[in-house]
Design a protein that fits this description.
- This protein has 347 residues and is an alpha/beta fold.
- The protein contains ten helices and twelve strands.
- The protein has a seven-stranded mixed sheet, with helices on both faces.
- Strand 2 (38-42) and strand 3 (45-50) form a beta hairpin.
- Helix 4 (99-115) runs parallel beside helix 5 (145-155).
């Protein structure tokens, strides 16, 4: 008989006795594979993810330490508030070019266009291949995906940025200041990790401490996502925030809304994500506060496809060949797992 799962009750009692503000509701989830205490902040609510065996005092300290930021995060307007999008200085819409992303892009651009806020938008596609401007053929993404992502954004009134979509990222890589709002606002952008190879080269070159190959990324060592997506997207956002602060002389942090096309139906991890929350990891207390919005979180796959076909937005032909996810060409099927995943788990 397997041991019972660890209880969250001791942590919940410790937080209840910690003298936190009365308006703040705390819930606790014990996560066996977590390595550190994590916080998910929604309006007036904090969900605390705790590795088993963590002392209750450490959990209380993690919440208390972030309390000033939690209070600011909880005061932000969310999707239930009228004209809430006008509060944000920049809205970064992330797109893979796949079915979920294009539905999220189309819906959000429609809302922003109606509100007259397209001049605050930057649509971002992260490239996992070698720099395509050097003429290299893609090995990771399907060949059409970057152009398809741009075509989907164009349907919503967002054109490609200068330098073939690489203007902002080039400015950031060169270490020069992003000086004009016109370089990023209302435009579609490409960005990639600042290395010579692609994601597959990274897999081949990674080594463990003993010098042996590290191999494929997994759900628990997701350096593909952290290094090739999260870090690159954060650098892109940082460059834009620096330009906004300089242009407007802001003394407060830049307010960033990050849009993702995640759906609850995709996995348990994505089902646990809140449709609207504060992103502690991407935020910096003095310079930027980042909120995450998942506008199609509650849609089913059937509803996504109905939306795509009703809108007439172009989608990748690989879907018509039976591919369930058009993320990259390293897709494999593990018969021991219920769901199809990419080998790099970058979906």
């Amino acid at each position: 008989m397997s041991p019972p799962p660890p209880s969250a009750a001791p942590y919940a009692r410790a937080l209840a006795d910690a003298g936190l503000p009365g308006w703040l509701r705390c819930s606790v989830q014990v996560k066996p594979r977590r390595k550190a205490v994590g916080l998910l902040v929604e309006p007036r609510t904090v969900t605390v993810a705790v590795p088993p065996g963590t002392p209750a005092t450490e959990v209380v300290a993690a919440v208390t330490r972030k309390l000033p930021l939690i209070e600011q995060a909880a005061s932000a307007p969310g999707p239930d508030s009228p004209s809430w999008l006008d509060w944000y200085d920049v809205i970064v819409i992330n797109t893979s070019g796949g079915k979920d992303s294009q539905t999220a892009v189309r819906r959000v651009l429609g809302i922003l266009g109606a509100a007259g806020l397209l001049d605050r938008v930057a649509v971002l596609h992260l490239v996992l291949d070698k720099d395509p401007r050097g003429g290299a053929e893609p090995r990771v993404e399907w060949q059409q995906v970057p152009k398809l992502a741009a075509a989907q954004a164009a349907r919503g009134g967002i054109g490609l940025a200068a330098a073939g979509g690489w203007a902002v990222w080039d400015a950031h890589r060169a270490g020069s200041a992003l000086t004009e709002r016109a370089q990023w606002a209302g435009l579609m952008h490409y960005a990639r990790r600042d290395v010579d190879g692609d994601l597959l080269d990274d897999f081949a070159s990674r080594r463990k401490r003993d010098g042996s190959p590290r191999g494929w990324a997994t759900m628990w060592t997701r350096y593909c996502t952290s290094d090739w997506k999260t870090a690159v997207g954060r650098a892109f956002t940082e460059a834009i925030c620096a330009q906004i602060r300089a242009e407007r002389g802001l003394t407060r942090p830049v307010r960033v809304l990050q849009v993702m096309g995640f759906r609850a139906e995709e996995s348990e991890d994505r089902a646990d994500r809140a449709p609207f929350s504060f992103n502690f990891t991407a935020s910096a207390p003095a310079s930027r506060h980042v909120w995450e919005w998942l506008p199609i979180h509650d849609l089913t796959k059937r509803e996504v496809w109905a939306d795509i076909r009703d809108s007439g937005v172009p989608y990748h032909p690989a879907y018509d060949e039976g591919l369930s996810r058009c993320v990259d060409r390293t897709t494999v099927h593990d018969p021991l797992r219920r769901n199809r995943r990419t080998a790099s788990h970058c979906g």
